[in-house]
Amino acid sequence: MTSQVEPQVKPHNVKEIVALLAEQFPLCFSLTGEAKPLKIGIFQDLVARLQDNPLFSKTQLRQALRVYTSSWRYLDAVKAGIARIDLEGIAGDLVDEQQAEHAAKTLVESKAKAAEVRKAKALEHKARQQQQKPQADASQPATTDVAKTDKPAYKKNAPRTAAKPAKSSTLKENRPAKVATPVVAEKALQAVTTVDLVVGAKVLIKLGQNPMPATVVEVVKQDVVVQLASGMVVKTHSGSLYQA
Asked: CA 161 → CA 135, 157, 158, 164, distances in Å?
């Protein structure tokens, strides 16, 4: 069994909590190299093992798991057929095809979002440089061309041409009318009843446009903690869950 040494300094942020988890459970969590998929329900195992440690709270552990399981390194490790591990590094259930596809989709979306952020920062930096350039040019003394002011400038009158009829009306008349694309109605989701909200129940949670499969790991009154197929832990309201 892994020996646990309580840290002397209270962690200040999520990254420090993840580092402490990697220190106390090195066969489960890692900060570098290849990551391993975590056991479904590992949040409950962490709460049970660290419940007497005043430096950790459920909220902090939940946030640390969310950050760890949403990293590119972890999502890339969630592949079909790979065994999930517990806190001691013991292999358990295998990652199925649906869980692997969800992790791969999440990884692609996360990288695309990061690329958009980098592009926006680059455009902002370029715009800032363009704003600073006119100010630098204005500080330089203006020069005049004396030779050009000696002779008066003459303009040649442009030959008159007959006005051409506008083509906008003709184009509008010949343009085919747009056909409205039929909207396919999304399959109605059925809310999960209070009776069905038990630990281990399979549900659907709608975080984006499409509902995602999840497993209930904790129920506290109207608040429910679920774990996604990728291993991410999410706290939500019971009204946001639907029947799988």
From this structure: 43, 12, 9, 9
The alpha carbon of residue 164 and the mean position of all alpha carbons in its chain are separated, in whole angstroms, by 54
CATH fold group of domain 14-101? Fertility Inhibition Protein O; Chain: A; Domain 1 (1.10.1710)
Place of tokens 């552990």: 61
| Alpha-carbon gap, residue 197 to 185, rounded angstroms | 27
Q: Select from 22, 19, 17 the least CA-distant residue to 2.
A: 22
Mean pLDDT for the chain overall: 78
Model confidence at 5, pLDDT cuts 50, 70, 90, reads very low
* In the block, residue with structure tokens 């399981």: 69
Q: Which class in CATH covers the domain with range 202-243?
A: mainly beta
Return the domain boundaries, the chain.
Answer: 14-101, 202-243
Side-chain half-sphere of 56: how many Cα atoms within 13 Å?
25
Tokens of 11: 């962690």
pLDDT digits (tens, 9 = 90+) for 161-194: 555 555 544 445 555 555 554 443 446 778 878 7
28 CB neighbour count, 10 Å cutoff: 21
Residue 134 to residues 126, 127, 131, Cα–Cα distance (Å) = 13, 12, 6
CA 140 – CA 125 distance, rounded (Å)? 24
Mean pLDDT across 12-32 = 90
Assign residue 69 a region: left if phi > 0, alpha if psi is -120 to 50, beta otherwise? alpha
> Can you tell me the distance from the alpha carbon of 229 to that of 21, in angstroms, rounded to the nearest whole number?
21
- DSSP class of residue 169 equals H
